[in-house]
TrEMBL record:
Coiled coil: none annotated. This is Molybdate transport system ATP-binding protein. Keywords: ATP-binding, Cell inner membrane, Cell membrane, Membrane, Molybdenum, Nucleotide-binding, Translocase, Transport. GO terms for molecular function: ATP binding. InterPro entries: AAA+_ATPase, ABC_transporter-like_ATP-bd, ABC_transporter-like_CS, Mo/tungstate-bd_C_term_dom, ModC_ABC_ATP-bd, Molybdenum_import_ModC, Mop_domain, P-loop_NTPase.
Length: 351
């Protein structure tokens, strides 16, 4: 099952030509600099923009052959766009108007988004984060087959973003609705997306499973603090004596500071490239808990040439390590070389 999107469109001074496919259900993130064409793709998919060419196929069904209103696509904009004269409850019910019977129930959506205590309020009396949660609820209650979110958190400050992120993560985990989200934030991508579509100047720079794309060393965002690997893992064991939790990622064991999560919990971790050192031999007396044997897949200089980034593969699991040109030379880091990736448990970000 997949979502397949092809959009071609020309504005007087900009042309877009993109095509990607993502497994469904799941979250596809469109990521790229301002003006690269993300909103244009979203508008063509929803039908708000009549693109020169647009083909949207969801699980074999050609949505783009239908009128926009018949596509059953829910849209959440940056600014929520709630009706100011209606209460939260009335805004939510508005979403249900003309909606076919479907899996999303009013009470469940309210509970999922944590907005039960807000039902009687008007939008002016809500915080930005609350408004966005209501806007998501309204879109969900229209029983969409596909949910589009155009920078749903862009208007929020960072603490509000932190507040809403868990709700978006629950949406991902608990609803079987495919989601396409536009974002400028690597953190959002790492936390929410399954498929990452990286757009640059109207074309696709890279697309694929989020872990694989984020671990690539050759992409423009793999510089500075953005560079890092995102890995899906399962909580395998808690070691209370050492205050560590062991995660399993396709057989690769990763130690993190002890987590208050039940065994078997699926989660994602992000390991920034700057936290990962490489060694050629097993180090002795070292404070890094994680020493993982792998093979260098690629190594290349960052765009500003101040650093090198090496992709280290252990089966399908990829790590990214940032090296100075000196250490790259000293260790003679090159493709196919067996290495050990070293990182502290506290260097791992649990998302
Ligand atoms: N209606 C329009 N008429 C002419 N040009 C347009 C129109 N809409 C968008 N563009 C141009 O198309 C390009 C892509 O715009 P788009 O809004 O899709 O970018 P974006 O990646 O979503 O940017 P941002 O992250 O800033 O929202 C821009 O150069 C923009 O100026």
């Amino acid at each position: 099952m997949s979502l397949d999107v092809t959009v071609k469109h020309s504005f007087p001074s900009f042309s877009l030509d993109i095509s990607f496919s993502a497994p469904t259900p799941g979250v596809v993130a469109l990521f790229g600099p301002s003006g690269c064409g993300k909103t244009t793709v979203m508008s063509a998919v929803s039908g708000l923009l009549k693109a020169d060419e647009a083909r949207v196929v969801l699980d074999g069904d050609v949505l783009s052959d239908r009128q926009p209103a018949e596509r059953r696509i829910g849209v959440v904009f940056q600014d929520g766009r709630l009706f100011p004269h209606m209460t939260v409850a009335a805004n939510l019910r508005y979403g249900m108007r003309r909606a076919p019977a479907g899996p999303v129930k009013f009470d469940e959506a309210v509970e999922l988004l944590g907005i039960g205590h807000l039902l009687g309020r008007r939008p002016a009396k809500l915080s930005g984060g609350e408004r966005q949660r209501v806007a998501i609820g309204r879109a969900l209650l229209s029983q969409p087959r596909l949910l589009l979110m155009d920078e749903p958190m862009a208007a929020l400050d960072s603490s509000r973003k932190q507040e809403i992120m868990p709700f978006l993560a629950r949406l991902h985990d608990e609803m079987n609705i495919p989601i396409m989200i536009v974002t400028h934030s690597i953190e959002e991508v790492a936390r929410l997306a399954d498929t990452l579509v990286l757009i640059s100047k109207g074309h696709i720079e890279a697309s694929g499973p989020v872990g694989a794309v984020l671990a690539r060393a050759d992409l423009p965002f793999s510089t500075g603090s953005n560079a890092g690997a995102v890995i899906s893992a399962t909580v395998e064991q808690h070691d209370h004596a050492r205050w560590l939790t062991q995660l399993d990622a396709q057989g690769v064991k990763i130690l993190v500071p002890i987590l208050d999560r039940p065994l078997g919990t699926r989660l994602r971790v992000r390991i920034p490239a700057r936290e990962v050192a490489l060694a050629l031999e097993e180090p002795r007396l070292i404070s890094t808990n994680n020493v993982i044997a792998g093979t260098v897949r690629t190594v290349r200089e960052t765009e500003d040439k101040t650093m090198a980034l090496a992709e280290v593969a252990v089966g399908d699991v990829l790590f990214l390590s940032q090296l100075t040109p000196d250490s790259r030379q000293d260790l003679d880091i090159q493709p196919n070389k067996p290495v050990l990736a070293l990182f502290k448990s506290i260097g791992v970000q649990v998302l």
